[in-house]
Every structure is written in C-alpha cells, then in structure tokens.
Sequence to fold (563 residues):
Amino acid sequence: MKAAVTSLDLSHFRSHKRAALSLDGRPVALYGPNGAGKTNLIEAVSLLSPGRGMRRAGAEEIARRPERLGWKVWAAVEAEGAPHEIETRAEAGQTRSVRIDGKAVPQVALARVLRVLWLVPSMDRLWIEAAEGRRRFLDRAVMSFEPGHAEAALDYEKAMRERNRLLKDGVRDAHWYAALEGRMAQAGEAISIARRAAIARLVAAQGEAETAFPAADLALGYPDETPEEAEGLRAAFAAMRPRDMAAGRTLIGPHRADLDAVWRAKGVAARDASTGEQKALLISLILANARALAAEGGAPPVLLLDEVAAHLDSRRRAALYDEICALGLQAFMTGTEPGLFEDLGERAQRFEVTETGGESQVGETT
Amino acid sequence: MSEDREAIDRLIELMARLPGLGPRSARRAVLHLVKKRGTLLAPLAEAMTEVGATARECLNCGNVGTGDICAICDDERRATGQICVVEDVADLWAMERSGVFKGRYHVLGGTLSALDAVGPEELRIPRLLDRVKSEAVSEVILALGATIDGQTTAHYIADQLPGVSVTSLAQGVPVGGELDYLDDGTISAALRARRTL
Fold:
C-alpha cells in the first residue's frame, strides 16, 4: 500500500506566486540556496493534514506579500489505493477552509485521507524544551494511527476553554463545571487510550526493526498525578476546582501530558543525549511510525524532513535513504546542496528551488 | 428620482436582514410586493403592525404568542406533569407540528456557552427549576440539539434536578432513513440505543 502526493499546486503561498510539481511517489529532494522557498513547499504539504502545519502559522501569515490576496494549495493524492483531490485555501482575513474531492469538509477530515509527519529544525530542541512540543509530536503520531484522535482532542480542547473561562470569570456554579468536566473526562479518556496505544505500537515497531537509528523506550508522564480513566478524571477535575480557580486555568489533564524517552541501548534519557543523537532519536520514531502503519497494512505516512540530511553523517544519511526507500515512503527532503542527495541516485525525484526578485521558482532536474 | 426610491430602498435593506434572504432576493421580494400592493403589501403591512404591537414571549415558558401567558401554558389539559425543554421557539413549534407531545414546554433560548457569556440566567434555567417545583412536574424531557453545547446544557440541567425523572430524546436512525446515508456517529448512537423487538 502506498500513500503519496501526486500533484502539488501552490498559489500565492509565501514566496511562491505559482508553483506546480508533478510527482511520481518516489522521495522528493528539494535543493537550493537559503531563502529560496524550499521549506515553503513542504509547509504546503503539511497543510494537507489538520492543524496549523509545520510552522504553526496562521492563515494570514502564509499569504504572499505584498499582495496579501489569500492563498491556495491544491493537491492530488493517492492514499489507500484511491485518488483524492485536496484543496485548502484562505481568502484575505479569513481562516483556512478545506475541500476534499470538491466537497467542503471540516479540517479534521484531512486526517482520514493522508497521514503527514514532519521533522523541522525547530524540533532539534524538542527533548530539552517544554512538554508542549513533545506532546504535539506524540499527538501527530497518534493521529496517524487513529484519525478520530483529532476529534477527541478538539472536543476536549473546546470544553476546557469553556471551563477556563468560568475559572477566570470566577463563576462558582458547580453544576456548570460538572457538565463541562464530564465532557472533558470522556474525551480525555479517549485521548489517553489512543496515546498509550500509539506508544505501544511505536515501541514495538522500533524493537523489531533492523535500523541504523537508536531505539527508545517511551512513556507517558504528567507533571502532577493525573488519572486517565473517565471517572477518575472527572473526580480529579472536581477536586481541583479551587486550585484551578486560583490559577485561572485547568492545571491537570491530558493537555499537560509529556512524552518521556530513554535511549534503550545506553539507558540515557533523551534530553541528556548529544544533539546529534537527539535528532537521530526523532528520526527513529518517525521511521518506526511509518513501519508500524505499513505493517498493519494501512497507508504509510508522507514524511517532511526539513534540513535533516545536512545534519547526519554520511553513514546515517545513506541509512536513512535506504530505510525510506525500503518502506516505499514519499519523503520530501530539503537541503542546500544537490550533493546531499547523491546517495539516492535514481530512487528520488529532484527539484531545484531558486528565488529572483522575491519570487520562488521550482524546476525538476535529473 | 433617487428621492422617490428612498423608502423602497429602505424596505429592501430591511428585508435583506431577514434569515434566508440576501440583497438580491430582498429586491425581488420587494418588487413583487410593490406590484401586488393591494392584495399582498397592504395586508402584510397590517399583519406586521398587529404582530409588532401584540407579540411577546410567554412569561412562563418563553414561547412566542400574543398574551403574557401562551395558549399552551394557559391550557389546563396540558398540565400532564411533563415539561419538554427545547433550545428555541422553532423547536417548540416543530414538536407541536408532530402533535404527539401533550405536556408543556420550556424554551431556553440557546445553549450554555461560557465563551459567549451565555450562562444559566440568560437561558431561563432558574425559571425552569421553579416550574418543576410549582407545577408538580414528574418528568423533564430534554429535547436539545445533539451538539456538544446542547449536550453540555442537557447535563447541566439534569444535574440540578435530582428526584425528577429526566429523559432525553433518542438519537439514531431517522424514520424513513437508510443506514447507508448515516454518519458514523449516528450509527454508533443508534446501535447503543438498540431495543428488543
């Protein structure tokens, strides 16, 4: 089973006034000087999944300047043996809308068509920075296994925002809290179950594989004691009301979860490993994610690897390419030099990205 | 010339504010009215004036009528001990069209939303709790939307009515509907609420 973007059209998307890529499912190497617009291309692919994409940008930020007309990404994708057309766009001053096969759908519907996973330079510090980044990384993996996760997360988020508003406004209506907390507890349980299942699958997929990347033991943790099943969570929310009210927000729950990783072979926590090893660990997890999906006969994810090749030694780089090709993944990779992708040979499509007068050009090269 | 049209333009502008109408359809409607001044426009204006002068919300349940107490609340035969709670007057009228429910209603006028600053006070919930006591109510039927906010509101109300039977409408396959056309959520709700034949 394959999953790939087969055509990608950008219109007024950041530095690209127009760009059209015709793709055949092989990995995609994008090279060109800094600031040419390589990352913008893969950011467009990241918007074929729910959320704000790999830069976490608002719709307004993405519009090409100086026109600021709004933007559009159109893609033809092949997923689970069926072709789909995805269009996502935002008119000036509006939020982004999504159409799948010509029908307007909510953003979360994207998770059911294409799984997209990414690694970007800002994630280099993922293991040492705040839990939020790790949680988001985990949730993207969870969503690839369990598309319904996006809906549960949204449901939880929405109820929590309401509850936080009550806390901030000093509302003391216990019944109102109970109604919202019931919803949060129910969605929270679904979130935790999906997260634990995803972690188990990642760990299993790492254990079985022949890979040049280090395997990690993963665990779900919380800053404070947090029950995961609905009844316990509901009681905990109720008990926390006074403290939450003093803080003006919800202090415990799945929204505070953290992903802990320990490098299995060395017994070292990920945050204590070297910068290079930390990155290798992330690559390992993304590959394990792809492997787990492939093993279950589902559609593998599309990978977006921004500036990843340049930070690996040549042995690991070659190993990464081999594993991507062995899994039959469409990985979009960026780098400043075409030489970085030499090892891929005929196994990849290559595009040169250049920029003149603030406008990016993309051309396929051989 | 433009001065003569001022009143008509104002009418078009007002009509365009109605739900379901835009500037184009408002223009069409007004032109039609002007053409049928005698048979439609004048009676319409008269009816509007009358409704404008007499329409009000029922002090008891929030239904719209022409008296302080609506016809349903005024009808002793409808004191069955059942109150059906709905979000809007439109929902009440939909229930009434079906003609199946013989009790009384309570219109909330929306759903709880902390973010939109809609609290229990804005929703006539305290009034509902009073009514449950004063009207000897034995069952409260929550006929709220199957939306997230609707369900939060339902839980909120149910939580405050211990000792009274609180029920909600079933969710599932619509009458005359085919399974094929249902979304996953509806099918799973229908399966959970299955019953023995």
Notes: Chain A touches chain B at residues 155, 158-159, 161-163, 165-166, 169, 171, 173, 175-176, 178-180, 182-183 (CB under 8 Å). The CA atoms of residues 5 and 63 of chain A lie 22 Å apart.
